[in-house]
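Backbone-to-sequence.
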């Protein structure tokens, strides 16, 4: 099974751990690395403004709070867990790498066509166009941080936690299509977590880290043709945006009350 990876450069998991894990059960043939620049922030800000209008300042307040109170401990957790994961597997093989600010270009398409993947795995927040996600013969897949279709778009775990929908805190394996996390679903993965002490970022990452063996098995089943999409007919479907400070405070208060 020939697999290509499309990932952001800023995440140690996406850029270092994920290639090693993919290479452990497949033939990793190429990596598209997306460079994050200032335009990324403003693109997400405009998107959130269209969704939330003046509540975008609640989003910005959470970003400041996160940097001051949570970011350091989360970075330490990510570094420790990533180091432990990297010790479990040999380094990935040297493969062709294509670096870009925008994966939706003819150059990226030509690169993917040149490495001839059977499947592609996307670990990025950029919406891919059909000419990119359709290059791989068996499609492009994403492990979305949220249970779909209820928690589509970014930060699904955060919104499930803040809404006390604890049975839907987890991740979803789905095939990318032209919608926002609307493709066929092939698996759900849920972590064990402590919502009082752990941040939404750690809980979200544990959804993947703790379940990667199951994710790998599901990808192999899809490749063999044994994996069938999960029927989500009739279930609620919603697109969520960036975390807000007011919702974070409400979540943590509810978590403390539930544990009392």
């Amino acid at each position: 099974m020939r697999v290509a990876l499309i990932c952001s450069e800023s995440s140690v998991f996406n850029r270092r751990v994920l290639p090693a894990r993919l290479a452990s059960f497949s033939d990793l043939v190429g990596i598209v690395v997306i460079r994050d620049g200032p335009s990324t922030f403003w693109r997400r800000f405009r998107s959130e403004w269209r969704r939330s209008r003046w509540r975008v300042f609640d989003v910005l307040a959470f970003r400041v709070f996160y940097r001051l109170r949570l970011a350091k401990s989360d970075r330490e957790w990510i570094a420790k867990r990533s180091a432990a994961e990297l010790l479990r597997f040999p380094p990935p093989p040297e493969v062709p790498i294509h670096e870009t600010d925008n994966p939706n270009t003819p150059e990226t398409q030509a690169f993917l066509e040149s490495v001839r993947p059977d499947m592609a795995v996307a670990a990025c927040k950029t919406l891919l166009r059909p000419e990119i996600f359709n290059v791989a013969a068996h499609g492009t897949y994403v492990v979305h941080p949220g249970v779909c279709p209820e928690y589509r778009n970014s930060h699904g775990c955060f919104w499930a936690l803040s809404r006390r929908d604890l049975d839907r805190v987890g991740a979803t394996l789905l095939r990318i299509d032209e919608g926002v996390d609307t493709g066929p679903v092939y698996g759900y993965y849920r972590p064990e977590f402590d919502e009082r002490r752990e941040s939404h970022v750690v809980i979200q990452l544990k959804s993947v880290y703790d379940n990667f063996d199951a994710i790998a098995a599901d990808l192999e089943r899809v490749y063999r043709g044994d994996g069938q999409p999960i029927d989500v007919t009739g279930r609620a479907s919603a697109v969520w945006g960036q975390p807000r400070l007011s919702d974070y405070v409400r979540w943590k208060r509810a978590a403390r009350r539930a544990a009392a």
